[in-house]
Amino acid sequence: MDSIYVAVVYDSLTGTDHSMVTSIIAKDWLVTMSEDELIRKLAAFGHILDQQIDAPTEETKAIMRHYRELSEKQTTHVGIRAERQNKFIDAIELL
User: Fold this and answer.
1) pTM score, two decimals?
2) Could you give the CA distance from residue 2 to residue 92 in angstroms, rounded to a whole number?
3) Residue of 49, 55, 61 whose CA lies nearest to 20
């Protein structure tokens, strides 16, 4: 329960839609990752997105750049939202 609350709060702080929470549930990350690991990954994602830290790899950097681009335009478009969710999943799995 605490992990979901943290994700929802973090989701509102990063300005993303509910694809973060949907991804956590769909990928079963609350079961496959420890709470600490998930929180660490979500925090890293937010810090990279806010350009407070560098992405650890070029692959992650490219995914985050694409995620940011998708977040800046047509945020309600279903296709773009789905692609953004996929980029979020890719990034979290790499972090």
Assistant:
1) 0.75
2) 19
3) 49
